[in-house]
Amino acid sequence: MAASSSKLFAVPMLFATALMCAGAAALLAGTTPHARAEAQSSKAPAHIVSVGGAVTETLFALGLGERVKAVDTTSMYPAAAMKLPKVGYLRQLSAEGVLAMRPDLVLLGEGAGPAAAVTQIKSANVPVADIATSWTPDGIAGMVETVGDAVGERAAADKLAADVTVQFAALAAGIPTTSKPTILLLLNAGTGPMLGAGKGTAAEAAILLAGGQLALPTLEGYRPLSLEPVMAADPDFIVIPSHVVQALGGPDALGSIDVISHTNAGRDGRIIIADSLYLLGFGPRTPQAIADLAEIIHPDADIPLAGRSSTPSGLVRLVGN
Known about the structure:
Blueprint: H1 16-29, H2 33-40, E1 48-51, H3 53-61, E2 68-71, H4 79-82, E3 88-89, E4 92-93, H5 95-100, E5 105-109, H6 115-122, E6 128-131, H7 137-151, H8 154-174, E7 182-187, E8 195-197, H9 202-209, E9 213-214, E10 222-224, H10 227-233, E11 237-241, H11 242-248, H12 258-261, H13 264-268, E12 271-274, H14 276-280, H15 286-297, E13 316-318
Parallel strand pairs: 1-2, 1-5, 5-6, 7-9, 7-11, 11-12
Antiparallel strand pairs: 3-4, 7-8, 8-10, 12-13
Helix pairs in contact: 1-2, 2-7, 7-8, 8-15
């Protein structure tokens, strides 16, 4: 999931009457995220289709879960979202499925696609808001505010964004800077070798925020791994998202994977299983996820709660714990 910025387009000013009609249509069906969000604020939508795990999580955090009528398959939190009708995977949406829900607002998270489906949705006279996301504290706060604008709940969104900002500030002050453990985050595409997370990924952003560093700093994006560079790097910790662990056959199957079993982290049990959306989704719970990770890789530090009711949360944990 990559960060992007909003594009601004001007509406030609030909006739006053045409401007009023076409301008309103452009705000509702055009391509300007913040303009569309502003257009929706005057009337609170009641039948929302939410696409993107972080977007859906934000809607529920704002107390708007009852307005959400359908979601995509990346919307795995909270549990109530899992029970809603699905309109496809984030990058493989069904335009017909979205429109069949008869929404009065569609929120499209970063990376929503394919382009043809998005175009079809935006051409159907349905209000649409593109929600930009990024893997930074400011980016999360901005995403929350944009969602709030789109659904006409900016005051509540401002409060949630402020809470997230305060939590990140507390973490930045409490996470050690003198020691930066090396971390290798592993993914699996279903076939072939394990993939390692490198620069320019959500994994890198989470690792850096938690006071760690990439075990393979020359890696770009998510790339297939061979055993030799992993053994040479000998990461202090290995992180595996929960959906990958499940696909591999559960925690007991991890010992048979060479890029794990041939490292000291693998032999010593320094393997961290992290709830996928919690750690890599970059939604409102991200400060808590970063705090959980920091608590494991900096066991002697006094890591702030950052919004957690207790520690450890169990969503980021060492294997066997």
